[in-house]
Amino acid sequence: MAEQQPEKTTAPAADAADSQPTAVTNTDTPKETTETAEPQPEDKTETTTAQPAVETTATETTAAETTTAETPAEANKAPAEVQQPPQAEEEKPVAEQPEQPAYLAKNPALAQFFERLPAIISSSGHAEMWGVALKDSNDAPTVNVLIKFLRANEGNVKLAEEQLTKALKWRKEMNPSALAESTSYNATKFGGLGYLTVYKEANGAETVVTWNIYGGVKDINTTFGDMDEFVKWRVALMELAVKELKMAEATSVINYDGEDPYQMIQVHDYLNVSFLRLNPAIKAATKKTIEVFTTAYPELLREKFFVNVPAIMGWMFAAMKVFLSKNTTRKFHPISNGANLAREFPSLKDQFPKVYGGSAPALQEGARTVNLVQDEPAPAALEQSKEQAKEDKDEAAQEESKAESAPEQPKADPVVTAKEAPAADTK
Question: Do 307 and 356 meet the contact criterion of CB atoms below 8 Å apart?
């Protein structure tokens, strides 16, 4: 009876060990029990030893259960943390930004130039260039303006920024649009010296041409004596041409490295001109005009033709090379005979004036020009002229009275004749 009890005690222990997840650990226990089965004390010790194995297994099971129980709770918390991570909130605005236009993506310098545009406008206090209200990189006319300034500086953003700032300040101060639209110029000084024509191609494209007829200068000091007045007149003519380019109506961006449709032709006619090299007033006015146009009108020139050029004009071309870039001077074409000019434009040849090899009337008959007014005599000169006329009339009346009162005197006729001679010379 006493020997059977240890067997019953050992069996449940083995069963309990088999029923636990850690079956490998409990499998070793029966082997130890079999080896020491005869002495009872050893059996009790084995039984006691087996019990902790069961307890350890139970403890491991409890820990596993606890871990298993905690896992769903942690799993429930994890999705909440994933759903609203701090980084996701910061990345949302970047993802929502619109894509950069292709012309900016291809030209980082242009993109950088646009980043500086607000500061440029603020610094200059003016936001209009050639009739274009400067806006942002989504506005085609604005993009075209900035491309021209960037081109003129060979892609150097800093230099382009400096030039655009100067040009905007100049336009604010000078108000060139008003010079072209509402200002009148002395016909004696500038009449017949500048014209504007617009020729149309068969496909509807337009070619804008400005003409400067320096051979029409009547008096050097009168035309060039006041340098500031001359520059204003020249700017007014230029603004008329810029307006015809219609840059504010652009709907597409020009190719930075391609053809630019917003450019004009300039023609300078020096027929019968032989004084330019020697006169300091003309040289000063020419230099000032080049400086202004280089700053305020970059990349608006397609080609420039100097026709009927005398040999002594070499100094002018040398001066232009100093102030203008190589890209600009490449556009200059001297032509000794003005009648060959129309050959340069085969599709427009018939629209050029006859004197330049075309079939159209002279510029004076069909071309546009700035507002001109005829000279008015100064008030003092006009008053003096009236007084002189009155004196002459009174003196003539007195002589006539004397002649009537003394008809026998034959000397009256020579007196009247002498008075009439200066009047004839004056005419």
Answer: yes
The token pair that represents 156 in the structure block: 């150097």
Burial class (CB in 10 A: 0-12, 13-18, 19+), 198: middle
Bridge partners, residue 209, by sequence: 197, 265
Threshold 0.70, pTM exceeds = no
Please tell me the total number of residues recorded for the chain in this structure.
427
Rounded CA-CA distance 365/420 in Å is: 40
CA pair distance 127, 141, nearest whole angstrom: 13
pLDDT in tens, 260-287: 999 999 999 999 886 555 688 888 998 9
**Distance in angstroms between the alpha carbons of the first and the last residue of the chain:** 170
* CA 103 to centroid of chain Cα atoms: 13
β-strand pairing of 206-213 with 264-269? parallel
pLDDT in tens, 312-371: 666 666 666 666 666 666 788 888 899 999 999 999 999 999 999 999 999 999 899 999
In the chain, the amino acid numbered 157 is V
Short-list 126, 129, 369, 130, CA closest to 242: 130
Task: Say how far apart CA 288 and CA 358 lie, in whole Å.
Answer: 33
Distance CA 158, CA 399 (A): 81
177 exposure class (CB count in 10 Å sphere: 0-12, 13-18, 19+): middle
Q: Under a CB-based contact definition with an 8 Å cutoff, are residues 214 and 237 in contact?
A: no
Q: Both tokens of residue 42?
A: 């050893």
